[in-house]
Specification:
By secondary structure, this protein is of the alpha+beta class. The protein is built from 27 helices and 32 strands. It has four domains: 416 residues, no CATH class; 174 residues, no CATH class; 115 residues, Jelly Rolls (Sandwich); 79 residues. The strands form nine sheets. It has a five-stranded antiparallel β-sheet, with no helix packed on it. A five-stranded antiparallel β-sheet has the order 24-25-31-27-28, with no helix packed on it. Strands 4-8-10-9 form a four-stranded mixed β-sheet. The longest helix has 35 residues.
C-alpha cells in the first residue's frame, strides 16, 4: 500500500502542472454550468442551436448503432428517404470521445453531452500542456496558465455547441508535437498516428489542421540552428530530406485513415462537395481593424454566430506575450520575421473571401464563420509561451510598445460601435492587460509568487470571458427535452410494436428535423451537412420546404403521402382533424428550429426553456409545422396525452410495380402540382385519362387598404395607407369533400406577410426556397374557406398562387392498381430488402422510393438487374410480368478497397518506424531553439 502511495505522490509531483491543465478547465466550466443551472445542477442543458437540433439526435443514433444495430453504420432510412451514413459518421460521430455516450442511458443524454463537452475542453488543455512540456520545457503554473488559456479561448467557448469541432483543439497540439519530434529525431510515427486520429475524428477540421501543419512546418524550419561548420550543401540536403520525410508521414496518415476518408469522399461528391464554389473573390469581408474587438473579453453575442468576425480571444497573458515575441532577442530575426508572415497570412485568411473559402474546403460556411480561427489562436498562445519563457531577452521598450498598442486599441473600441462589446468589457480587458504588464516587469525580480500570480490572473480572465459568452445564448431545458422524448418515444414505440413492416412515419410538429434519429424510425424530414443534394431538389420540386442540407415533410398531399409510404402520422392532440373546421388557435407559434440559414427564434424557444421540472399538458408545447386537414382521410389509431396517431390506408410499400412511363418523367421547377399530376398520369394504367388536380378560381377576393397590380398568377399588392393594417382575403366554397390545395411561391416570407386560414394563423414551416403546396381543406363540402394575407411591409408579391381540387376517387383507383403490384417484404434491414412481387402487366418497372445511389444492387429471381433513375433521384428496375423474388442490398462504395489501403499504410508506417529507429543519424547536430522533444 505504501508503495502505491509513493507512486501516486511521485506521479503528482512530476505531473501536477498537467493535472492542473486538465482539471483547471474542467472545474471552471463545471462551475459555470452549475451557476447556469445546467443539469444535474438545475433544469437547463447545453442544447442550443445545432447541438440541440442536430447533434443530440445523432448521439441517440450513435448509441443505438453501437449497442443494437451495427448495420445502420453504413445506411439508414432515418436519414430522409434513405442515405449513406459514412459521410455523416465522419463529420459528426467518429470522435473517439463519443464512446463516453455509451456509459449513459438514453434518459441521461443531456448529461452525457455536458460530460462530453467538459472532457473535450479539459483534454485540450492537457494536450497543449503536454506539447509545452515535451517540446518547449514548460513547467509549473506557467504551463498550466497557458494551457488553460488555450482550453478556454474564445473559439472554444463560442463553438462548444459544435462539439465535434473540439477534437481539433484536442489533437492539434499532439500533431504539432509530432512535427517537433520529426524535425529533431527524424521519427514521424507520432506525427502520423495523431494526424490520422484527427482525420478520423473529424475530417472537416482535420483539413484545416492539415493546411496549418504545412504552414507551421515551414515556419519551424526558420528556427533550425545548425553548427557553424556545416556546409550550405548539407543544409539544403537537410531541408529537402526533412520535407520529403514530412510529406511521407503525412501521406501515411492519410493512408491510415483511408478506410473512412475514401468512402466519405465518395459520399461527399453527392452531398456537401456538390456545393463547392471555385469562384475566388479577393475582396475583404469586413474592415480589417474590426478584428481587434475580438481580442477583448466577452466579445460575442448571438448575431455573431450567423455572420460575425473571427473568435480570437486568448486572454491578456497569451496576447501580450505573443506581441512581445516579435521583439524577443532570444529568437533569430528570421524566425520572428517568419512568425510575422504566418500571422499576417492567418489574419488575412480570416478576412479575404478567397482565402477564407480555401480554408473551408471551397465552401462558404453557413453560420459559424471562420471556423479555422483556432489555429491562429493556437499559434499566438504557443509563441506567447515561448516568448514568456525568454522574457529576459525582451527589451523594456518592446513591452511598453505592446502596452501602447493595446491602449490605442481600447481607445478605438470605445469610439467604435459594436453591438457585442460594451464599455465595461473594454475597461475590464484593459485592466487585465495592465496587470499582466506589471507582472511581466516584476518577473525580472524572480519573485517566487509570480508564477502563481500569472496563473490566477489568467484563470480569472478566462473564467469571466467564458461566463459572459455563455450567458448570451438560450438553451433548451432538461425537463422539456425529456418530456418531449418520453411522449413522442411512447407513441413511436407503440406504432412499431403493433406493426413490424417497413414504413415511414411523419409528424405535423417537430422538435428538430432529426427526430427520426432520436426515436429510431424511417422518415423523410432530415437536416445534416452531409445530406445528398438530389433529395432536397426532388422534394423542393414536389412542393416541400427544403434548403441546402434539409428537407421538411410539412406539405404533403394525399398522393405524396401514399407514394413515399408515409403509413403513420403523429399529430398534436389540440387539432381535431377528424372534425371539420377545427384549426389551431391563432396564438400557436409557427414551427421553427435552428437552421444554419435561419436565426434562432426566441419566442418559440421560450416553450423549451421553462424552469418547471414537472410539466403539465399546457406546458409541453408541440411546435406545429403544418396544417393537414387531409388527416381526416386517415384512420385515427390511438391518442396519447399530447399526441394522436393516424394511419394512412393509401401508403405504398418501399417498392411496387408501375408503368415504365415513369422513367420519362422529368423534374419541373416551380410547378409542384403539375409534377405530381404527371406522376399520377404515368402510374395510371387506364386508357382514359382524367385530371387529378383541377385548378379552380376563388369565389371572391376582398381587399382592405390594398391595391393590386398584375394577374392572379403573378400579382403585387400595395398598401394604400402605410402603417395601417392591410389584408387580402381569398374565399372559396368546396363543392366536394375532396382535398383542396394552394400553391405559394417563395416570395412569401415571415417578414413580409402573415397567412391566415379561416381567421386562424396558418401553421407553416417558414424556411423554403421553392413553391410549396399547402393543404387548406378536406372533407369540408359547403364550408366557406378564407385564406388571408396580412401585409407586414408596404408591398407584397404573391407569385405562383393557385387553388386546386384533388380528385380523391380517381386517386383511390390508382392506389388500388399499384397495391395489386406491390412488393411483399419477407425480411429487411437497414441495408437490404428481400421480398416477392406479382406483376400483372407488361412494360413495367419495379418502382422504389429509395435513392438510386451506387451502393445499391438489385437482383430479380437471383439475377442482377441494372437500376435506372426516376426524377434524377429514385431507384427503379425493369421487371417482367409474373411472379418474382426480389433482393435489394446496399454496400458502401470503396469501403473494402479503403480498408486494404489503411492496412497497407499501417505496414508501411511500421517499416518506416523500424528503419529510422535502427538507423544511425546525426540529428543531434541540428537543433531547434529551446526545443527538447521527448
Amino acid at each position: 500500500m505504501s508503495n502505491l502511495l509513493q507512486a501516486i505522490k511521485k506521479f503528482f509531483q512530476s505531473h501536477w502542472p498537467l493535472l492542473l491543465a486538465f482539471f483547471g478547465p474542467f472545474i471552471i466550466m463545471a462551475t459555470i454550468y452549475g451557476f447556469q443551472g445546467v443539469y444535474p445542477f438545475g433544469n437547463s442543458t447545453l442544447l442550443t442551436v445545432d447541438l440541440g437540433q442536430q447533434y443530440v439526435d445523432f448521439y441517440a443514433y450513435y448509441r443505438e448503432t453501437l449497442l443494437h444495430n451495427p448495420l445502420s453504420f453504413f445506411y439508414s432510412f432515418s436519414k430522409a428517404i434513405g442515405g449513406d451514413m459514412i459521410g455523416l459518421w465522419a463529420y459528426y460521430l467518429t470522435s473517439p470521445f463519443n464512446l463516453i455516450l455509451i456509459l449513459f442511458p438514453p434518459k441521461l443524454i443531456t448529461l452525457a453531452v455536458t460530460t462530453l463537452t467538459l472532457i473535450k475542453i479539459s483534454t485540450a488543455g492537457l494536450t497543449f500542456g503536454i506539447l509545452l512540456k515535451k517540446a518547449f520545457d514548460g513547467k509549473g503554473f506557467i504551463l498550466a496558465a497557458f494551457s488553460i488559456s488555450y482550453a478556454l479561448m474564445g473559439y472554444t467557448i463560442v463553438n462548444q455547441l459544435n462539439i465535434m469541432w473540439l477534437d481539433g483543439l484536442v489533437f492539434l497540439p499532439m500533431v504539432i508535437l509530432g512535427i517537433e519530434k520529426l524535425l529533431i529525431t527524424k521519427k514521424g510515427s507520432f506525427y502520423t498516428l495523431f494526424l490520422a486520429i484527427m482525420l478520423v475524428a473529424n475530417y472537416y477540421i482535420a483539413y484545416m489542421i492539415c493546411i496549418f501543419t504545412v504552414v507551421y512546418f515551414f515556419f519551424r524550419l526558420t528556427g533550425i540552428h545548425f553548427p557553424n561548420k556545416i556546409a550550405l550543401k548539407k543544409k539544403i540536403i537537410y531541408f529537402f530530406t526533412t520535407f520529403l520525410r514530412f510529406a511521407w508521414y503525412s501521406l501515411l496518415a492519410g493512408g491510415l485513415s483511408a478506410f473512412l476518408l475514401i468512402p466519405t469522399f465518395n459520399a461527399l461528391l453527392a452531398s456537401k462537395a456538390s456545393y463547392t464554389n471555385f469562384k475566388l473573390d479577393w475582396n475583404f469581408n469586413y474592415p480589417i481593424q474590426e478584428i481587434i474587438a475580438k481580442f477583448y473579453l466577452g466579445a460575442f453575442n448571438f448575431d455573431q454566430m450567423p455572420d460575425g468576425t473571427p473568435n480570437v480571444f486568448i486572454g491578456s497573458l497569451a496576447l501580450i506575450s505573443f506581441g512581445c515575441f516579435f521583439f524577443n532577442r532570444a529568437f533569430p530575426i528570421r524566425e520572428r520575421f517568419g512568425a510575422l508572415l504566418v500571422s499576417i497570412f492567418l489574419i488575412l485568411s480570416m478576412n479575404i473571401k478567397a482565402l477564407n473559402l480555401m480554408w473551408h474546403g471551397m465552401q462558404y460556411p453557413i453560420w459559424y464563420p471562420y471556423r479555422f480561427s483556432f489555429v491562429f489562436c493556437f499559434f499566438m498562445i504557443l509563441l506567447g509561451f515561448r516568448s514568456f519563457m525568454q522574457l529576459k531577452k525582451i527589451p523594456i521598450w518592446g513591452i511598453i510598445l505592446t502596452l501602447s498598442l493595446t491602449a490605442l486599441a481600447s481607445v478605438y473600441l470605445l469610439k467604435a460601435q459594436f453591438d457585442f462589446i460594451y464599455e465595461a468589457q473594454i475597461i475590464l480587458t484593459s485592466l487585465f492587460v495592465v496587470l499582466i504588464v506589471l507582472l511581466l516587469i516584476l518577473k525580472a525580480q524572480n519573485y517566487f509568487w509570480l508564477p502563481l500570480a500569472f496563473f490566477l490572473v489568467s484563470v480569472a480572465e478566462m473564467t469571466i470571458n467564458a461566463t459572459v459568452d455563455l450567458s448570451r445564448l438560450s438553451y433548451v431545458t432538461n425537463s422539456s427535452f425529456l418530456d418531449y422524448k418520453k411522449e413522442v418515444g411512447s407513441a413511436i414505440n407503440q406504432i412499431q410494436e403493433n406493426d413490424s413492416d417497413f414504413y415511414r412515419i411523419e409528424k405535423t410538429f417537430l422538435r428538430s428535423k432529426n427526430d427520426s434519429f432520436q426515436f429510431g424510425y424511417p422518415s423523410v424530414t432530415h437536416f445534416s451537412s452531409t445530406f445528398e443534394k438530389e433529395i432536397p431538389t426532388l422534394f423542393g420540386n414536389l412542393g416541400f420546404p427544403v434548403g441546402n442540407g434539409f428537407v421538411t415533410y410539412s406539405n404533403g398531399t394525399l398522393f405524396t403521402d401514399a407514394f413515399f409510404g408515409i403509413k403513420y402520422f403523429a399529430s398534436e392532440n389540440n387539432t381535431l382533424y377528424q372534425l371539420p373546421g377545427n384549426y389551431l388557435d391563432s396564438s400557436s407559434e409557427l414551427a421553427t428550429d435552428s437552421l444554419p440559414d435561419n436565426p434562432l427564434n426566441e419566442n418559440v424557444l421560450e416553450n423549451f426553456t421553462k424552469s418547471e421540472s414537472n410539466l403539465t399538458k399546457q406546458d409541453l408545447t408541440l411546435n406545429v409545422m403544418s396544417n393537414k386537414p387531409d388527416l381526416r382521410y386517415y384512420l385515427k389509431q390511438n391518442s396519447h396525452e399530447f399526441i394522436s396517431i393516424f394511419k394512412n390506408p393509401n401508403a405504398l410499400p418501399i417498392a411496387f410495380g408501375a408503368d415504365e412511363q415513369l422513367l420519362q418523367e422529368k423534374l419541373l421547377i416551380g410547378q409542384p402540382i403539375q409534377l405530381q399530376e404527371n406522376l399520377l398520369q404515368s402510374m395510371d394504367q387506364k386508357d382514359e385519362r382524367i385530371r387529378y388536380f383541377t385548378p379552380l378560381a376563388f369565389n371572391s377576393t376582398v381587399f382592405q387598404n390594398v391595391t393590386s397590380n398584375g394577374n392572379m398568377q403573378n400579382i403585387t399588392y400595395k398598401k394604400q395607407v402605410a402603417n395601417k393594417k392591410a389584408t387580402v382575403d381569398f374565399q372559396f366554397t368546396p363543392q366536394t369533400d375532396d382535398p383542396y390545395y394552394i400553391t405559394l411561391g417563395p416570395s412569401i416570407k415571415e417578414k413580409n406577410a402573415t397567412i391566415y386560414l379561416n381567421g386562424k394563423v396558418l401553421n407553416q414551416y417558414k424556411t423554403y426556397r421553392d413553391s410549396i403546396v399547402i393543404n387548406v381543406a378536406s372533407r369540408q363540402k359547403g364550408e366557406t374557406i378564407t385564406i388571408s394575407f396580412e401585409l407586414l411591409e408596404d408591398t407584397l408579391w404573391l407569385d405562383n398562387f393557385h387553388l386546386y381540387r384533388f380528385n380523391e376517387a380517381a386517386f383511390q383507383s390508382v392506389i388500388t392498381n399499384l397495391k395489386a403490384n406491390q412488393l411483399t417484404i419477407d425480411s429487411y434491414g437497414d441495408t437490404y430488402f428481400k421480398g416477392h412481387v406479382t406483376i400483372q402487366n407488361d412494360n413495367q418497372i419495379l418502382m422504389t422510393t429509395i435513392p438510386d445511389s451506387p451502393g445499391w444492387t438489385v437482383k430479380i429471381d437471383g439475377k442482377p438487374v441494372k437500376s435506372k433513375k426516376v426524377l434524377d433521384t429514385l431507384m427503379a428496375v425493369p421487371i417482367s410480368k409474373g411472379k418474382h423474388q426480389v433482393e435489394m442490398r446496399y454496400r458502401t462504395p470503396y469501403f473494402k478497397e479503403a480498408v486494404i489501403i489503411s492496412l497497407l499504410s499501417g505496414g508501411l508506417l511500421i517499416t518506416s518506424h523500424l528503419f529510422f529507429t535502427k538507423g544511425k543519424h546525426s540529428h543531434n547536430q541540428i537543433q531547434l531553439k529551446e526545443t527538447k522533444p521527448k
